[in-house]
Each structure stands twice: as C-alpha cells, then as structure tokens.
Amino acid sequence: MNGKPPVKYLCTSTGTMLQNFELTRLNVVANTSKEIRVALQEILDQILKSNILQECIELRAEALLCRWIGEYRGLIETDAVTGEPTWTKQCSPSRMVVPRKKLRDRVEVSEGKRSSLLGARYRGL
After folding, report:
1. Cβ(36)–Cβ(50) under 8 Å?
2. SS3 state of residue 125
3. Do 21 and 10 contact (CB within 8 A), yes or no?
4. CB under 8 Å to 47, separation ≥6 — which residues?
5. Contact (CB, 8 A) for 31 and 23
6. Is this model's pTM higher than 0.85 or not?
7. How many Cβ atoms from other residues are within 10 Å of residue 90's Cβ?
8. Which residues lie below 8 Å from residue 79, measured CB to CB, with a gap of 6+?
C-alpha cells in the first residue's frame, strides 16, 4: 500500500464490504505485530546469550563506584602500611552523618535529573 487508503473504493462500498476491508487490515496489523514480537524476542535472546548485558551492568557499576569515590574521597582513609581503605573506622555513625542541607540539596537535584531523564525516555518512544 502506498500510504493512501482507497477512498473512492471505500466511499462506494457496501456495509459488508467495509467490514471485510476493516477486518482484513486489522488481520494484517495483528500478523505484523506478531512478526515484530518474534523478531524482538530473538534479539533479546541473543543479547542474553552473549555477555554484552553482563558487561554493560559491570561497566555501569564501575562507573558508579568511580563517581562515589570521587564524591566521598575525603571520607575514605587508607591504612599507612597496606594502602587498603580502613572501612571499619570509616563506618562509625559520627563520620557518616551528612548535613541535612547537603542531603536535601542532593535529593532535589537527583529527583530533577530522574524526572527529566524519564520524561526524555518516554518522549523517545
């Protein structure tokens, strides 16, 4: 079909002919949708069989860890001998307290980013 419905034919068709035309078109749509679902399932299966998804998850986790370390580097101390983080000393409640204003600012910023990201994601569909 060239994207233009056969208007002249439809205008001169009987009620039965219009119903048949509609059902035929809807049947084609249903079959095409099934083909699309099958193709998407095959693509998804291939992605899951490969290591691409796992690699993507690991890289994202590394990037988030990198960001966290960059933001909270001042809270992390290292042992002078081993160079390893001294987590047990770092996890005391007094050292992990974040000032309310700083926490409120971070929540407001992250919520703004999240809502704009979701909006962009849904606008792209």
Report:
1. no
2. coil
3. yes
4. 53
5. no
6. no
7. 13
8. 85, 86
pLDDT digits (tens, 9 = 90+) for 7-58: 999 999 999 999 999 999 999 999 999 999 999 999 999 888 888 888 999 9
Identify the burial level of 24 via C-beta atoms within 10 angstroms of its C-beta, where 0-12 means exposed, 13-18 middle and 19 or more buried.
exposed
* Helices (H) then strands (E): counts for the chain: 6, 0
13, 21 contact by CB (below 8 A):
yes
Instruction: Kindly state the tokens that stand for 49.
Output: 């069989």
Q: What percent of the chain has pLDDT over 70?
A: 61
Helix (H, G, I), strand (E, B) or coil at 1: coil
Say which DSSP state 79 is in. -
Distance CA 85, CA 74 (A): 12
Which of 97, 98, 75 is closest to 85 using CA atoms? 75
What is the identity of the amino acid at 7? V
DSSP 8-state code for residue 124 = T
Residue 85, beta-bridge partner list: 78
- For 90, residues 6+ apart whose C-beta sits below 8 A from its C-beta are 75, 76, 77, 96
